[in-house]
Amino acid sequence: MYAAATATYGAAVWTDARNTEVCNAVQDWRADSFAAGHRLLPGAPWPFTDCPATWGNTDIYAATTG
Q1: How many CA atoms lie within 13 A of 20 on its CB side?
Q2: I need a labelling partner for 30 at 20 to 30 A (CA). Which of 6, 15, 21, 44 fits?
C-alpha cells in the first residue's frame, strides 16, 4: 500500500491476503444480520473456534528496483 521512487530506484510495500481462507460462519452471520436489518447479537461467531486457522491471515510483501 506504499510506494516510493526516485529517477533510479523504486520501492513498494503491500498487504496480501492470498494465504487466507473465508470463514463461512462469519459470512453466514453477516448475511443473516443484513437480512434482519441489524447485527444479530448474541449469535456472532467466535473466530478462534468457528473459523479456519488461516482466516484473516495477511502477509506483508515488499519489492525494490535498482
Answers
A1: 13
A2: 15
